UniProtKB/TrEMBL annotation:
Species whose genome carries this gene: Pseudomonas benzopyrenica
Name under which the protein is recorded: GTP cyclohydrolase FolE2
Alphabetic keyword roster: Hydrolase
Function: Converts GTP to 7,8-dihydroneopterin triphosphate.
Coiled-coil zones: none
PANTHER family linked: GTP CYCLOHYDROLASE MPTA (PTHR36445:SF1)
Family in the record: Belongs to the GTP cyclohydrolase IV family.
Site, as annotated: May be catalytically important: C154
InterPro entries: GTP_cyclohydrolase_FolE2, GTP_cyclohydrolase_FolE2/MptA
Length: 299
């Protein structure tokens, strides 16, 4: 059959003429290819894509054109490829007078991380990522948001726990003129954990603008920079020696939610544009979370 199929988006006009800010699709499942070092692989992603519709009488956009253009994401993902993709989405809708396009990609990096002390032991850690790109009147903008889990131990709780341990020791040995180190060590082995500070898994969401002309997305370097600033990234595969090392790391790295936000801001603001930070400590003391936000203005 060679019959011409009807296309009402072309043959009809809108009964209620009005320009629309954005029209498109949400929740498109597709594979994308990351082309950065060890991350040169395909990962499952979900895409939202839209163009503007300034033509007040246009019945609708051509969604299949946008969908087919998304196949380009099977090529290694770079800022330039995203810019070109959005520009071509606008070009594909000249009949609608479109001047803008935008794209959101949600996916996750799965990265192998080594244990703290056990040689040749490692496991996988998942980092959710969101890329947001727009092309508006010839101006391209791109940002990346990463989510990073880490551990946080409360300084106030640690101080209160130390005081209780101190009091218990003095109650038992406070009248002694001399207590030998072996006795002290034995007491600590039995009683040092009679009060423990609360710590919790915590989450940092960090969003940065990727500058025009950037060659790569540099997602993993951004994640690594954040984990170094926070100091206590959650672990994957561990043995007892690694668990002990992690306990020591937390004990020497006490932080409020305010501390975490400031650490990230100071670490990132000189090397990244338009930094936006949101940190949450998923409290073990409370049924609610502690949160902080921070941002930097572009230079």
């Amino acid at each position: 059959m060679n019959a011409i199929l009807p296309d009402v988006s072309l043959s009809e006009t809108a009964t209620l003429p009005a320009a629309l800010d954005w029209v498109g699709m949400q929740g498109i499942d597709l594979p994308i290819r990351l082309g950065e070092g060890d991350l040169d692989s395909f990962v499952p992603a979900r895409a939202d894509v839209q163009v503007d519709l300034p033509a007040a009488t246009a019945k609708g956009i051509h969604m299949s054109r946008l969908y087919r253009l998304l196949d380009r994401l099977g090529e290694p993902l770079t800022p330039e490829r995203l810019r070109s993709l959005l520009a071509d989405m606008v070009t594909s809708h000249r009949s609608c007078d479109s001047r803008a396009a935008r794209l959101r990609l949600d996916f996750a990096l799965l990265v192998r991380r080594p244990a703290l002390v056990t040689a040749e032991l490692s496991g996988w850690k998942r980092y959710p990522v969101r890329l947001e790109a727009s092309w508006v009147a010839g101006v391209f903008q791109l940002s990346a948001r990463v989510q990073i889990p880490y551990s946080s131990t409360c300084p106030c709780s640690a101080s209160l726990a130390r005081q209780l341990v101190e009091r218990a020791f003095l109650e038992e040995h406070g009248t002694a003129e001399h207590v030998d180190p072996v006795t002290v060590a034995s007491w600590l082995r039995r009683h040092a954990s009679l009060a423990t500070p609360h710590s919790q898994r915590s989450l940092a969401q960090v969003q940065v603008s990727i500058p025009a002309g950037a060659v790569d997305l540099n997602l993993l370097p951004l994640i690594d920079q954040c984990e170094r600033a926070l100091g206590t990234p959650v672990q994957t595969a561990v043995k007892r020696a690694d668990e002990q090392a992690f306990a020591a790391l937390n004990g020497s790295n006490l932080m409020f939610v305010e501390d975490a936000a400031r650490r990230l801001l100071v670490a990132l603001r000189d090397s990244h544009q338009e930094v936006r930070i949101h940190v949450r400590h998923l409290e073990s003391l409370h049924p609610h979370d502690a949160s902080a936000w921070a941002s930097s203005s572009p230079a």
